[in-house]
Specification:
Largest sheet: 6 strands, mixed
Strand order of the largest sheet: 6-7-8-3-9-10
Radius of gyration: 21 Å
Bound molecules: adenosine-5'-diphosphate, magnesium ion
Order of helices and strands: EEEHEEEHHHEHEHEEHE
Number of strands: 11
CATH architecture of the largest domain: 3-Layer(aba) Sandwich
Helix content: 25-40%
Shape: globular
Length: 281
């Protein structure tokens, strides 16, 4: 028992809440006949509720593989991933991924049917409730008027909005996004970043967002995990609450971007080569 701060102080003990998501010493590997490719090496990070947590690193450093592991699609070769303290070992409705590709929507379903499908099948909602929830989230991304349209009639940005509505409608514990705006033109990308931040203000979900763009990481993230080139290891974890779309281009923003660039690319190269190794059967 610790002493009270001053006589008569009534201290109420608030139990420390464990992080929502814990990535604990996670190494991920791809095994092909004759060799093992290590995608990430002993990565650690914690995501708390309502964080906008960004994984930032160069192409090939294992960001997508990490996201797939968090979503339960790739089992760790070592370490453990826990959601609310429970080990993640299979995909489920608590972690939903929005991918970069525009073809993530089945083309034979309308926009509304696309959003309804996982609500009906993974959340077990009846038709009427699923329709209401789908329309609510389509309205939030500005696509209610396109509910009966088919995906091929939509622009890339609109398809991504449908994918975001479909994911948010599931009320996942963590929304995972893998470079969702990377294939969009620059103006649409900026607009989508703005909309995502507005949705987050509105719905306060927990976001785990992958990007290779330093600027995007600073704009979207409240925390940024810097990963080294292949295989991805944690270089640093930074706070980036201070930045938003309005600060982009400002002196402080530029200075932060340059600092991150140096941390990503100018840190000493590891002597040890653990990226690939032969398998000795
Ligand atoms: P990022 O998303 O950061 O670009 P990835 O997670 O896609 O990186 O890939 C990490 C590493 O794993 C890369 O070196 C890549 O070549 C390798 N890799 C990815 N997918 C496979 C696969 N299916 N089989 C073998 N190696 C893979
Ligand atoms: Mg990737």
């Amino acid at each position: 028992m610790s002493e009270p701060l001053h006589p008569g102080a009534h201290l109420r003990v608030i139990p420390a809440r464990p992080p929502l998501l814990q990535v604990d010493g996670v190494s991920l590997e791809y095994r092909t006949p004759g060799r093992v490719v290590r995608a990430t090496h002993r990565v650690n990070f914690d995501v708390h509720g309502a964080d906008r947590f960004v994984l930032l690193g160069p192409s090939g450093c294992g960001k997508s593989t990490l996201l797939k592991a968090v979503a339960g699609f790739v089992p760790p070769a070592e370490g453990e991933i826990r959601l609310e303290g429970r080990r993640v070992d299979a995909p489920g409705p608590d972690c939903i991924v929005v991918f970069q590709e525009f073809d993530q929507l089945p083309p034979w379903k309308t926009v509304k049917q696309n959003v309804m499908f996982p609500l009906r099948h993974a959340r077990g909602m009846g038709r009427a409730e699923a329709t209401d929830v789908a329309m609510h989230y389509l309205d939030k991304v500005g696509l209610a008027p396109f509910a009966e349209a088919y995906p091929h009639t939509l622009s890339g940005g609109m398809k991504q909005r449908v994918a975001i509505a479909r994911a948010l409608a599931m009320r996942p514990k963590v929304l995972l996004m893998d470079e969702p705006f990377a294939a969009l033109d620059a103006l649409t990308r900026r607009r989508m970043q703005e909309e995502l931040l507005a949705l987050w203000e509105d719905a306060a979900f927990t976001l785990l967002f992958v990007t290779h763009s330093i600027e995007e990481a600073l704009v979207v993230g409240s925390r940024i995990l810097l990963l080294s080139p292949h295989p991805g290891r944690v270089r640093a974890e930074l706070n980036s609450h201070a930045f938003n779309l309005a600060s982009q281009g400002g002196a402080e923003f530029q200075a932060a971007a340059q600092r991150i660039h140096r941390m990503l690319f100018e840190a000493p190269v590891e002597a040890e080569n653990i990226g690939e190794r032969a398998v000795h059967a």
